[in-house]
Amino acid sequence: MSFEDMKTEEFRRQAHDLVDWMADYLAGVGDYPVRAQVAPGAIADQLPAAPPKIGEPMAAILQDFQDIVVPGMTHWQHPSFFAYFPANASPPSVLAEMLTATLAAQCMLWQTSPAATEMETRVLDWLRQLLGLPDGFHGVIQPTASDATLAALLMARERATGDKANDVGMAALGADGVRLTVYVSEEAHSSIEKGAKIAGFGRAAVRKIATDDRFAMRPEDLASAIAADRAAGMTPACVVATLGTTGTGGIDPLLALAAICRREGLFLHVDAAWAGSALVLDEHRWMIEGIDAADSIAMNPHKWLLTNFDCTAHWVRDPDALQRTFAINPSYLTSAETGEVIDYRDWGVPLGRRFRALKLWFVLRYYGAEGLKAMIADHIAWTEELAGAVAAHPDFEITSPRSLALFSFRYRPRSFDAQAGEDAALDALNERLLQTLNDSGALYLTQNKVRGRYAIRFSVGARTTTRDHVMRAWEVIQTTAASLSTGG
Ligand SMILES: Cc1ncc(COP(=O)(O)O)c(C=O)c1O
Which residues is 180 bridged to in the sheet? Predict the structure, then answer.
């Protein structure tokens, strides 16, 4: 038994070949079906149940990658990917990820890679400036927006309990009658409820506040919910405002929510996971009026801003409070510089940290503010054009108005009977339409329930998308829909 490592020359050769594969893949990604066209279990069936006993040549591994893995992938960089929100990558970001993988540093402490820590601080401050966020916010890269939300909820919990929950636990506080509540819009992302479960608030503590006709939280309803909770002996702790809700693109009225949080002494977290990228454009900065009062803000460069998953930018007003929430100081994790430098291990849940700042640095330098603005502005303009065409079509209707590069619609043929049961039949028809479209591999869309009714989301945001792809998608939607209504 001996350890046979890959020799440098073999690594060099394999890496060169792989880069060729990567370049060809990115150039031809539009030729794949967007959504994987495989049945459940199809990939697992091709993977041996037991691990290899002896090592295999790279050629065999790569052949299986091509034959087994690639057909089982959904191609998120495809120009006709209009599902979910984008998870954009870009060539400079991919190159940086190659370097990150090669350096393979674990960047938990300043000392374990000073460049990673110092670049993270700098690049998040660049991004803060690019998005027009005010001074006085301190940045950290969290793996995902869900992690940022959890961190914010934990900070809110500590603020509301005078830093006691961390020490004695929520159960002990519960016995003293402290019952914390969290406020979100009914359109907010499920990660907030998940965070509330993990942070010990409990799902029942999450108050889902009604939204207006643009799917934005109603501040007067927030104020009444807080008052009702106080009257019932609860301790309101946190408001999570969403800029760009996942289903409908709703943008909560930050200024009004901030005023309520100030008055009530509540922690304010802003979830701008998707829409935050649009802040590169001045004309969308109305969304952040009132942001000065936020305690915590998160947005995802790994969605629309061309940076490979995963990379969430998280800024907090009070980094000491964040560190108090997370810090544990065993002796093996201290270094000579502890206290003098930033040790990001204390700014979130994981101890170990990848060098994520590198890819963001590559992206911001390669595209510059102007490049990012141009891409986002195009996506928004094409979405506006498409939403206009859908609204004008007599057989389709908009179910949630365009917000930035997202809207939702449903097919509602003129011939459709307006009678009892219509809504359920329309739901079924639209579900069938979506399935047929996604099964075709020509484009990929996702569904949503808007005010309880089935709707199809259209979200533009892939780097590779052009106006032609958007318009072609609309043609495919119309012809597919027409074939459904006539062909049954
Ligand atoms: C508004 C919003 N918040 C949070 C999330 C969760 O993002 P992540 O996957 O980074 O946890 C999403 C994901 O789409 C989202 O749309």
Answer: 235
